Amino acid sequence: MSLPPDFLFSQSNLQDFVDCPRRFELRYILKQPWPALQPEPVLEWEQSLLQGLRFHQLILQYLIGMPAEVLTQTIYDHKLQRWWNNFLADNPLGELPSERYPEFTLSSPFAGFRLIAKYDLIAVAPGKRIVIVDWKTGSPRTNPNSLRERIQSRLYPLLLVKAGHHINHGVVNPEQVEMIYWFAEKPSAPFCIQYNQTEYLKDREYITTLITKIASLQLGKFELTPDDRHCAFCNYQTLCNRGKQPGNLEDLEEESYQELEDKIQIDIDQIGAIQF
Ligand code: SF4
């Protein structure tokens, strides 16, 4: 057992374990400081992080009542402006239930530890329909099928069923739950998941097995991924002697875009309270 009993399992750290057990060990158990950012050009990398963060902030500000015209005047970045224009034109909020919980965190005991998730938005019609919305700013090349297999697509609805009773005003039935990935670069093609009891049981089993496996591993037994594509944007390349060249954002494959999105989410989580 390498983990403290109060360890919080999230989509980010579980996805890290799935992608590379060694990355999980370095980042969350050994708490190895991240070396310098790897992708080149670094400025483009940093700009991607900031643009993703700012886009999430804009939607949050909009959801809590700031007028779109006022928010539009704060944007001086072409890509961000395009995403924002897409958001306003597509109006992905239009079909959602009216009770809205932006930047909402749920947590629940699970498999001897706790699960935690921070949702971009949960929209609720209590007792009827609950929609999880996730804003994606990555490449429109994102493969929907691979997206369904991401930990986020399993953990978010699972945890909502387990811990969302207070916003549903009663037990959450898996059949009530939908999850929507909305793509800022491709607003006309959101990826939607209709959850159900079968998927819930499968996801519960899968996440339980994953956590049990992680908890059973001793230090030093977390293996390096055999798939070095995961190394291309990993900050531990030098520690693992994997790849001398930093990744180039233009070479990102679909899976790597999801890793970039996860890193953006990590950065958002680490920034903490946002000042408006
Ligand atoms: S560089 Fe590769 S092997 Fe090392 S932690 Fe990162 S993903 Fe894993």
Structure notes:
With 276 residues, the protein is α/β, with parallel strands linked by helices. The chain has a single domain, classed as Lambda Exonuclease, Chain A (Alpha-Beta Complex), CATH 3.90.320. The chain is 45% helix and 17% strand. It is built from 11 helices and 6 strands. It has helices at residues 11-19, 21-29, 42-63, 68-72, 78-90, 144-149, 151-163, 165-168, 197-216, 237-240, 254-271; strands at 8-9, 99-110, 113-125, 129-136, 177-183, 191-194. Strands 1, 2, 3, 4, 5 and 6 form a 6-stranded mixed β-sheet that branches. A hairpin with a 2-residue loop joins β2 and β3. α1 (11-19) packs across α2 and α3 (42-63) crosses α11. The N and C termini lie far apart (42 Å). 35% of the residues are buried. The model is unreliable at 267-276 (pLDDT under 50). The structure holds iron/sulfur cluster. The site of iron/sulfur cluster has 13 residues, from α2 and α10.
Biggest sheet statistics: 6 strands, mixed
CATH class: Alpha Beta
Mean pLDDT: 86
CATH topology: Lambda Exonuclease, Chain A
Query: What structural class do helix, strand and pairing data support?
Result: alpha/beta
Helix content: 40-55%
Number of helices: 11
Beta strand %: 15-25%
C-alpha geometry = globular
Helix-strand string: EHHHHHEEEHHHEEHHH
At CATH level 2, the architecture is: Alpha-Beta Complex
What bound compounds does this protein have?
A: iron/sulfur cluster
Report the count of strand segments: 6
Radius of gyration, rounded?
19 Å
Number of separate domains:
1
* Low-pLDDT windows of residues: 267-276
What is the terminal-to-terminal distance? 42 Å
